[in-house]
Each structure stands twice: as structure tokens, then as C-alpha cells.
Amino acid sequence: MARVDDLKKLILEHNRRLQKLKEQEARYGYSVDPHIPLEIEDIEAKIQALQTELNQLAAGTATPTITNERPSPTSGSPIVSSRPGTDQYHSCFISYSHQDEAFVERLYNDLQQQGVRCWYAPQDMRIGDKIRPTIDRSIQSHEKLLLVLSEHSIESDWVEKEVETAFEKEYKQKQVILFPIRLDSAVMETDQAWAADIRRTRHIGDFSQWRDHEVYQHTFERLLRDLQAEG
């Protein structure tokens, strides 16, 4: 079948490119060009979609597919991207406390379904990665830092360091990097200097009623609108 041959050829070409990119990533480590991890993520998504179609053809169950999409997540399945990030939205690094993971998993899934490229530690941290350099590199390679503020994250040294990295990136690039949202009123009352500074200087998205589906959906749509890339 011509389509099978085409798929195999595309997978081979993508794998060759992926190998070269991973060699560059390993060689340069923390100083790697930020575009390389993003291209790796996109190529891995394309390979996954192409391989899925190839498997379907082999089983005789193939249906028309869009080859630049990832499979949509299903209930109870591990979190996977529904499709790679597009130019429609800014890519995001999600900064949060692990104690807020139930909310973050929901947000991550919904953002991915809409084509927003996200970095989320439980999904994207690879076994053996050095944590701090990996996080710093990921913040640099994504356009925005989506900060989930709560009583837990405000007390997190990790979150504070991630915010400091985002502020430094803002200073260097002269553009807004930090996108804060809140799950409770802690940031409105805290005396933690870095969080209080965010309260005084930034509009903070309110996801405090995220368990209410209608309220969550309305707030999520507002977040999507604000994450849209210009042009």
C-alpha cells in the first residue's frame, strides 16, 4: 500500500531528525538552544500519530487522521497531549505545588486538548533528569509561566525559584512571562514578599471555584483568550 510506504518513510525521516536533536540536547545540556526541546516535543508527537495510523492500517481499521495530532486522552488514561502546540497560543510552563495536582491535571488536559503546548513535571520530566537544570531549561524554552497560586504553592521554595526565573526572563525580554491564577484567597492575604508583589502588580485569574464545572469553563475560556498569540 502506498500509504503504508509513505508512513514508514515519514517515520524514518522524523526519527533521524529526532536523533540529531537529542544528540544536540545531550551535548549542550543547560545551554542548549531553547527551540530544540520544543522541536523534539513536536517531532515525537508527529511520530506517535504516524505510528498510530500505521498500526491501524496494519490491523485494517484505519480511519482518516490528521498526522500532526496526538491521540486524545480518555478517562482514566495517563495524561498525554491531544496535539502539539500551535502558533495560536503561547506555550506554557506550569508552576504549582504537588498538593494542587488534582486541579493541575485537569487544567493540563484541557490546555493540551486546545493545542496549548504545556510543560508539566509529572508528564514531561524524564527518568534520570537533573531536576533544577531541567526545570530552568523548560522555563526558558516556553513562552509563559502559568503560575498556580494557593496556600500550598506560596509556601513552596521550588515555586518561588520558578517565579524568580520568570521575573528574570521578563526583565531580559521586556515582555510579560508570568501568568498567575489562584485557587484560593491565600495570595490576597499573604505576607510572603514575592507572592505579595504579584498581588500588587498583576491581575490574577480566579479559579477558586474550579470544582464548579460551569464556573471553571468560563474562567478557562478567559485564560485561553489571554494565552492567544498575537498575529
Task: Characterise the protein shown here.
This protein is an alpha/beta fold and 231 residues long. The chain has two domains: 2-59; 92-226, Rossmann fold (3-Layer(aba) Sandwich), CATH 3.40.50.10140. Helices cover 54% and strands 8% of the residues. It has nine helices and five strands, in the order ααβαβααβαβααβα. It has helices spanning 2-28, 35-59, 101-113, 121-124, 131-141, 157-173, 186-189, 193-201, 213-226; strands at 92-95, 118-119, 144-149, 178-182, 205-206. The protein has a five-stranded parallel beta sheet. α1 (2-28) runs antiparallel to α2 and α5 (131-141) packs parallel to α6 (157-173).
Observed structural traits:
2 domains; 231 residues; five-stranded parallel β-sheet; alpha/beta; single chain; globular; Rossmann fold
Share of β-strand residues: 5-15%
**Large-scale geometry:** globular
User: What is the CATH architecture assignment of the largest domain?
Assistant: 3-Layer(aba) Sandwich
Q: Whole-Å distance between the termini?
A: 41 Å
Specify Rg, calculated over alpha carbons. Answer: 19 Å
The main β sheet shows up as:
5 strands, parallel
How are the secondary structure elements laid out?
Blueprint: H1 2-28, H2 35-59, E1 92-95, H3 101-113, E2 118-119, H4 121-124, H5 131-141, E3 144-149, H6 157-173, E4 178-182, H7 186-189, H8 193-201, E5 205-206, H9 213-226
Parallel strand pairs: 1-2, 1-3, 3-4, 4-5
